[in-house]
Fold these 4 entries.
Entry 1:
Amino acid sequence: MSRDRRGKSAKSGKNRKSSSSNRHPNQIRVFVATPGDVSTERGILRELLEDFDLMFDGLETINIRFVGGETIVPSLGRAQESINKNLRRADIFVGIMWNRFGSDTGKFESGTEEEFKVAFDLWKERGVPWVIFYFSDVPSALNSAEETDQRKKVLAFKKTIQLVIFDVSDLSPNVMIEIGIRSRHAPFILLTRNIESLPFFLKTYHCLVYEPTVAGINNAIPELADLIRKTLAPKNKVVAKEDYQVHELAM
């Protein structure tokens, strides 16, 4: 995920609709897992979800709720267990990483890693939550051995991702490097808004073209789903929906 990092934080949400302790019958719970260096992106995502929720304010159709460590009341025992308990009720899991991997939880090397593992195991077991993971490609300087070690852990974790979807519309140098690395050991899918703007070597791969509008994205989803199935299916074998999953959108 690539974006300009904002110096200001997202709105606090004090004037927004408060969440009820009783779950709305059509509530969508979005669990967000991040280390500490993407607090800006986390705040933007929370504000976006709250804005979506306000769009449905007063209607009985849908209720969207942000869920994360800061929304959970701690209890006795291992702190991560309280977070995992709420994660198990989520409908969508969104993970975000940049340079920091996080702190050891006693079972995993970071809370974000543990939350991803819990979410992925739940998805394999029951098909929920839908799991998405973003990795920021914003340039940065690593100024200490500890920061370098954290970055190495992020890259090692990223290599475990089963399938990567790259949006190459802006021809980000970092994304180009990632494609070069990925092409040697794991599958990936390319997206673009304009096929004519791509360099010749990218045109040798199948690239899904989409329009950057709500209608355009909705129209591209069926083709993307079919492409995912074909990319991950073993040769000469047709797989059911539950046999594959996208873990990362690199945009």
Entry 2:
Amino acid sequence: MRLTQPFSNTGYRIRFQLKNCYFASATKRGCSFPNSCTAESLFTLAVIYSNTTGLQLKEDIERKIETDFGKNSVQAINIIINAIDKTDYIKTDRVLRCIIYLAKGSIDELHKYIEVATFDTRDVMLWAEYEKLNEDFNYKRVRDFNKTFEESTKDVKE
């Protein structure tokens, strides 16, 4: 990837020369690209766009989106960006990891869990990080999404 135009002071416009995708651009209003772009290039553009809007996705979150959502990873990132624009408090790494974990690569489930998190982030944290032990309200924490996806099951504290 080669940056062909730096950030401007007038609104985050940025242009890129991506592999097999020349002169793709991202602004704070959205992304544009020629039809010849590859899925890899589009994902890269979506990640760069998220960075131009002030959202800094951690590397493990980017990898998980790309792995779980595959060809729909660009759409998933755009859905996440739009949700954060509307509801700023869901942008924490922990909440994003919980939503992505629960969605399991489904765009419909991504919408569902973003909506749940918008109402109360504690719900997605409970469902993603804890397992129910019995029919009562006894839960055990089995994941800690304050850590990366790779580290989330190691040394989990209640």
Entry 3:
Amino acid sequence: MQRISCFSEGEAGNRKEATLLQSLGPCRGFVIVVLLAFAASEARADYVVIDLGVIPGGSISQGMAISRSGAITGYGDAGSTASRAFITGPGSGQLTDLGTLGGFSSHGVGVNGAGQVIGDSNVASGRTHAFVGSGPGTLQDLGVLRGWTDSYGTGINDSGQVAGYGVLAGGGTRAFSGSVQGGITELGTLGGPNSLAYGINASGVIVGAADTATGRTHAFISTGGGLTDLGGLGTSDTSYGLAINDHGIVVGFGGYPNAYHAFRMRGDGTLEDLQTLSGTGSSFAAGVNNHGDVVGWSSARGSGSHAFLVRSGSSQMIDLNHLIANGTGWVLSQAGGINDFGQIVGTGSYNGVPHAFLLTPTLTPVPEPSALVLVGLGSALAAARGARALRRGRTGGRGGGGPAGGPPAR
């Protein structure tokens, strides 16, 4: 968002402000009101929203994950009904079609700092295999294990370690871990028939969900020595872990009889119910950065879903549509990932068409009007100048991704 200022910086600016103050005379109060209204509108614009566009020849796109370096992946159409995985990044200016493993469609789900994308693609036989790749013609097939028919890649860290799940020939799913070089390994379950892995952090800790011996589905973490049950959420005692940061904080969603609620794992290992934007319906937490900021989507007042942010140290779910400028043409419906710079990737409706978006933090919001003391034009000008202070910088990021909806996985 471009900011417009009538005032120059330094001493020259102070002299111009003093001259302006003297010349306003009886209009001073009006100018104060105008500046306060400006400040109130600026308080909303915590983020600049960027349209990531579409794959050349396509019309729609969906943003899934963003890395610490700002590489972004997702998928969109490419002039046909088939989906194609894409990658884009800082200064790219376009979505690059990653192609397929010989089939007709592919999906980008996670991306690491080196720009390696993990996802899934049809192969020539029509089955679906997990892949890792960084550009057109580079997709490497992670294959399937004995007894599997299909595989799906969901997370990759900066070391190239991967997570995902396979589909059994007789029905059911199994989480896997591994790498391109070393192959993939099945992770097992929590005593029940199924498991799914959705994300992986820098230390190789994997997060997902698995059936228990009692018939519940619980979020788990795995460090390579089996699965650790994180317990359930809500009266249905159900949970799915979708993402994990480098400090081991897991986010996801859990069950109630008629809805799911997003959760964030507390420091003591319990699951914190993040509720919903509307007070009813469902919510899903899909991404978390190393500061503990959480993004996802929730039922919104009215209809449909809205992307949300829960800041570190807070339990308040904030509608991301309230943190961008008015009149952009956007309705932000889902947030898929957030890195440590605070950049958020997701999907929304841009003038009625589904497009992937990138939110980049802008300047520090000024105080709300009620917090300003009406002591003269000088105070109002100081508040306007305060809006120019840059938001605190952030480093690092998450290299995993999550599903584009609730369970089960695609």
Entry 4:
Amino acid sequence: MPLPDMSKHNTSPSYLRSLVEASGLSQRGCAKAIGISDRQMRRYLSPNPHEEAAPYPVQFALECLSMEVPEPEYVVMPVPRLKRDYEGKNIRLTSDISNGFGDMKAGAIGTITSQGPKGSSIYFERCASCGCRYSVSAVRTGFEFVEIVDSMNGEALL
């Protein structure tokens, strides 16, 4: 994570627009993420010379949003011996699953919240595009146990 450096202040609205595009969020999404109003964000991005230039903290926040964050790497873990030990474990779907509310594609990461006779209840991470969380119950197959790999030493973070 870079440190703020006021000497890098760029007041160009086109530079700020490029940061918004690089973030993958909408103008409204960026405004919400950095804590300013939609209207203020539009003013900062306006090419109109009479509009107020964005202060450096806004620029820095947009630069942080636009930085590429590496996807975490996962390692497959052995299946716990007892079903009661499934709770709290991370899983990755190996096949698509669905219920009455939606579908989850293979590769989605979730956490088993409870284990019962009908199968596992899985709570998935927030969707990057809409922010919704998805929960599915009675899942018996179609997943593998995983843990995040520590990028520094290549070991699973338990």
